[in-house]
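# nightly structure sweep
# worker-07 picked up a monomer target from the shared queue
# config: single-sequence mode, recycle default, output format = structure tokens
# input follows
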Amino acid sequence: MIRFFLGLLLGIFLFLVVGSIILEEFPAIQPLWQEFKKAIVRLYDMALVRYGAVTTFLIIIAIFIVFGSSRKI
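# output follows
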């Protein structure tokens, strides 16, 4: 369990570091990143209205679990 949370924190940290380096090196993709963030916020807001706060939170956790536990053998 602790190993899972450490891996999750390390993955988030790595994602943030790599993302900031990419955005600094390629400033032309910043508008694309802004549009992506707007689309994610729009999806979140639609799910919040349709399903409610608790169910939306559980859906987000389920998506992270599905992507985090899928392993290719």
